[in-house]
Amino acid sequence: MILLIFGAVQLGLIYALMAMGNYISFRILNIPDLTVDGSFALGMAVSVMTAISGHPLLALVFAALAGACAGLVTGFLQTKVGINPILAGVLTMTALYSVNLFIMQGKANQSLFGHNTIFSMLENLGLSKNASRTVVVLVIAVLVAAVLAVFFKTRFGIAIRATGDNEEMVRSSSINANATKCVGFALANACVALSGGLVCQYNQSADTGYGSGMLVVGLASVIIGEAVFRHGGVTRGLYAVLTGAVLYQLIIALALKVELLPAYGLKFVSASIVTIALAMPKIKSIIGDVIKRKKEGV
Amino acid sequence: MAAVLQLKEIYKTFHKGTVNEKRALNGVSLDVEKGDFITIIGSNGAGKSTLFNAICGSFPIDQGKIILDGRDITRLSDYKRAYDIGRLFQDPMKGTAPHMTIEENMALAYCRKTSSTFFAVNKKDSAYFRELLAQLDLGLEDRMKTKIGLLSGGQRQAVSLLMSTISDPKLLLLDEHTAALDPATAKKVLAITVDIVEKTQTATMMITHDIRAALELGNRTIMMDEGKIILDIKGEERANMTVENLLALYSKESKKQLANDRILFSTQK
Q: Lesser CB count within 10 Å: N end or C end of chain A?
């Protein structure tokens, strides 16, 4: 049981990075970004190939950079080419499928067994397997959250936030809103790909199909986090997302443990959580109407 | 004196070659001098807002030249022009980012001119923002951490006004910026506007449907119709102009009766 909880928390912290990426596009830029499914697998592909060549640390850096490039492409398609945001994300995601296979030399999956990972590097220093895993993911997740929180208080950071809030105002403040959007997407997908890169070293394998449905998993984490913390500033939002991702993994792990649902039911649960959360305002207003009518009837 | 803004024969047609073809700007030429406060009147669809959009670069113009402070900005993108142009819309929601604090909004507007610091919100700038907000006399200086979305329309418009003038623009464009506010608030925002314009001597163009205000405020009045400037008065000629004469002149110049409810109503106050 303890092991189960440890595992869920570790995974939650890794997925928190992806959820932060979703938070940046979905909440801060206010544009759903469907690149995520592709950039997550991109992070895996880059990470696995670099790790196999013997550089597990560099693998994470490359994964994040590759994700940023994917985000830039989506941003470019949206702003300069003028493609509908959702379609732009789908196009990049689809193209990434081929790119990922190309990176993995045509193989749909790659194993990392027998190769060094960032986790095994720490184990070699004398830490236990569980401790090294927890330390690595905790440090990276908290560090990324802290860096992002500071970034969104800088001049360029608040420009990105304002772009999602009122784009016209950003333009009339003489700031290039296309640039803020592109950088926002790059940042979001860098987080997502870093998450993918860590997952692949954690699982010691990469799979090109692993990314599908990741967007919804990320959104579910964002929504759970916001339900716990309520809405607040960006710093609070980022830590809410971090908590939300851990909670989500805990819920899933427990549900699997008590055999509430089979493993293949996970995506259905994530989609349901997001759907219910997004439907909440409408449901509340309907319930409110019913109560009001009943009162008036009496 | 050199003109701050020069418009040379500007033409713009929307939906060219379709049944919806609309000549929005039909050869507009105008010189705005430093210290000018121009009020612009005209019926709906006369091209007033389109003129502002053309100056701000919301769309490329078909023909003509726009020169701001000696620099040809005709082909410059909208956000680059905004460096020297402050603009306020009728809708108070348009000028501010609702989920960000008053302080953050002002910091964003101030970005283009202040020395670059790492954090957008810093002590030095905040003290300056506080001073500016205090001048509004709305008590906003003590609510700088409040999200702008929680303020009333009038308060938001007042903050937007500060934001559009905070970085000393060379030109200030006001597009019926008090029309969506209640009369008392509108009066207050207008008073603040006049105060700021007088203090900074920024060249200002203000669209209004209140003909009385158009004649009372500023030093020059322009009337537009069907994408053209049909009247441009200042000095003595303007001082002697009455609302009735202006309306009569309008029907003479445009050879039609003024059939615009909003203008007629606003003259009956």
A: C
